[in-house]
Amino acid sequence: MMEKDLTEIGKDARLAARQLLLFSNEKKDQFLETLALSLWSEREKILEANSADVLKAREKMFSEALIDRLLLTEKRLQGMMADIRQLIELPDPVGKVLEEKTLSNGIRAKRQRVPLGVLAVIYEARPNVTVDITALALKSGNAVLLRGGKETRLTNLTLVEVIHQVLVKFELPTTAVQFIDDPDRRYVNKLVKMDNYVDLLIPRGGNRLQEFCKQEATMPVMTGGIGICHLFVDASADLVRVVDVVENAKVQRPSVCNALDTLLVHQNVANTILPMLYERLKRYPVEMKLDEYSAAVLGIQPELGLVAAVEGDYDQEWLALILGIKVVEDVDEAIHHIWQHSTFHSDGILSETKENINKFVRSVDSAAVYVNASTRFTDGAQLGLGGEVAVSTQKLHARGPVGLEALTSYKWILEGDYTVRE
User: Among 19, 69, 91, 370, fewest CB within 10 Å belongs to which?
Assistant: First the structure.
């Protein structure tokens, strides 16, 4: 449990952030490679801690979706290592000159990227977030305060122990990455008021957490990560290939925020595509929440996973093998439905009609808009960002997967010759 007062933790983080300002790009990349190797060399310890967390979750009858989110395997550890190595290949944004000019008074002015300072991230079941955020924070020169969920406490403590070992090897303060391990809610209540020490708060969790942070935090808050994601099957879509995309978007990893939640189907192809989709998805099995039209096509058969949609179903982020189905008249009705029900995370169109594609892309204002692709690509690693600290659905500062550059700001550097203003 907590050994230090939260204010002391904040002060230590602020001091560590100052020390990170002198951490060279070469050293950052060496640190990240050593971290990747350490995760693998310590895999038995990490997976043992994770097994204990998973066992507790099963004893408490947690959902399979939540257990999947907290589960680590050797394959997932290798994925984390691959993300770190992708991050190494990316240029360090810190120090990048965005603009440079000489003013009429002779002053040479340049605008240069700098770290934000101290990040605080509140997240829930996914322990890979601990490593992702650490890697992104340190590559971008930021200290970080981590407040992970109690479901993965043992895993997170072990991961942070490994991270601290690597920090010590590079003569960096372990206070650059601090983990708040006490599940008491009062620590969150205090953390969101620590604007003297925290420059950006990132809540990664459900609506309640995000609304709480937006209302209570005294520092800037980056919200997002809640995805009610849609795909619209247009009348001109290649229906055989549509089945592959929908299958991937829904079942490849149903417990994540970019998994498909609602499928919108043009009425002209509903009688053809819906039986095709049912035959493919029943093997998993995926439960389908059917509107009146699709129910007329497939029939209501709860024992086969075909159930009637009820009020509120189209406002659900399922995070499970459940898919809402709604038949629409045309692309305009699909766009209208998305504006009514989307969280503007990831939405897409499957179509061969350029006019409809263009209308959809221009009209749907989501952080990621897809054309003939699965929604599963809204991910920092997939987009070449070297992982992400969150997926932002806001419009200011950063949008979509939040990678390295989004964790920096800029400052003006003004160089004169003992110049005074007249």
Answer: 91
Contacts of 292-301 with CB under 8 Å at 24 or more apart are 293/267, 293/326, 293/327, 294/265, 294/270, 294/325, 294/326, 294/327, 297/270, 297/271, 298/274
CATH number of the CATH domain containing 351 = 3.40.309.10
Paired sense of beta strands 346-350 and 368-371, if any: parallel
Q: What is the mean pLDDT of each run of 10 residues along the chain (422 residues)?
A: 80 97 95 98 97 94 85 95 94 96 95 97 88 95 94 95 98 96 89 96 86 93 87 98 98 92 98 98 96 97 96 94 98 98 95 97 96 94 82 83 91 94 87
Neighbouring C-beta atoms of residue 192, cutoff 10 Å: 22
149 shares its domain with 278? no
Q: Which residue from 123, 120, 174, 187 is spatially nearest to 150, judged by alpha carbons?
A: 123
Across-strand partners of 415? 108
Could you tell me which residues come within 8 angstroms of residue 410 by beta carbon, excluding any fewer than 6 positions away? 98, 111, 112, 113, 114
* Contact assessment for residue 152 and residue 70, using Cβ atoms and an 8 Å cutoff: yes
Q: Nearest Cα to 91, choosing from 386, 389, 362, 310?
A: 386
167 and 258 together in one domain: no
* CATH number (domain holding residue 187): 3.40.605.10
